[in-house]
């Protein structure tokens, strides 16, 4: 979305393939599928990955945002709105999603890892061109952290819990939903972002005259990671 609005940025590293969003409802709700959302109120933060996840899930079953009421709330407010019955469902985001699962028995009624877009490290194109060695150094540091997290998941969860001031169980559940195995950006990210861009264009979030495939191809840059990661 930023790239389509003219921001000169590039995605140069993948820190994780997360499952940080899903569609959520209360444990006693009668909502069990995307089709059940027709005519309902659903909380989502416009423009974010949960919002894109919701739109793609609706499109997959022949629905759109016009078939329900999307309530634009920040992620934590969306979780609260769900638990206080102000909305029928919520396009959730970790760690808020993990917290309502653990603390309130909320149900993730639609999960799809492949509809989550990726966690990317981004850089301004001009800076990358002028200082490629700095970009590579930052990637090397991220790569060191990624490998450590893969090898030390329990310690990583403890650090996350402490630094983010959250319960250890919430931190563990959030981290468990991340795949840290493939840090070099490429075809998988292009496919995911093209799909996201198409649904955003259909909803008039991205302008009709924008060439989504061109924007995505210019966004996903693999050369810095390939050089930095031995």
Descriptive notes:
The chain is of the alpha/beta class. The protein has helices spanning 49-60, 75-83, 96-104, 125-130, 132-151, 153-163, 168-176, 187-202, 212-219, 223-228, and strands spanning 9-18, 21-25, 41-44, 69-72, 89-93, 107-110, 119-124, 178-179. Helix 3 (96-104) packs across helix 7 (168-176) and helix 8 packs antiparallel against helix 9 (212-219). The model has no long low-confidence stretch (mean pLDDT 96).
Summarize the structure.
The protein has 230 residues and is α/β, with parallel strands linked by helices. Helices cover 46% and strands 17% of the residues.
* Coarse morphology: globular
Radius of gyration: 18 Å
Strand order of the largest sheet: 4-3-5-2-6
Secondary-structure element series? EEEHEHEHEEHHHHEHHH
Runs in which pLDDT lies below 50 for 5 or more consecutive residues are none
Helix vs. strand class: alpha/beta
Summed up, the helix count is 10
In helices, the fraction of residues equals 40-55%
Question: Per DSSP, what share of the residues sits in E-state strands of 2 or more residues?
Answer: 15-25%
Number of E-type strands:
8
How widely separated are the two ends? 31 Å
Oligomeric description of these chains:
single chain
Sheet of most strands: 5 strands, mixed
Instruction: Round the mean pLDDT to the nearest integer and report it.
Output: 96
Features:
10 helices, three-stranded antiparallel β-sheet, alpha/beta, five-stranded mixed β-sheet, 230 residues
Topology at a glance:
Elements: E1 9-18, E2 21-25, E3 41-44, H1 49-60, E4 69-72, H2 75-83, E5 89-93, H3 96-104, E6 107-110, E7 119-124, H4 125-130, H5 132-151, H6 153-163, H7 168-176, E8 178-179, H8 187-202, H9 212-219, H10 223-228
Parallel strand pairs: 3-4, 3-5
Antiparallel strand pairs: 1-7, 1-8, 2-5, 2-6
Helix pairs in contact: 1-8, 2-3, 3-7, 6-7, 8-9
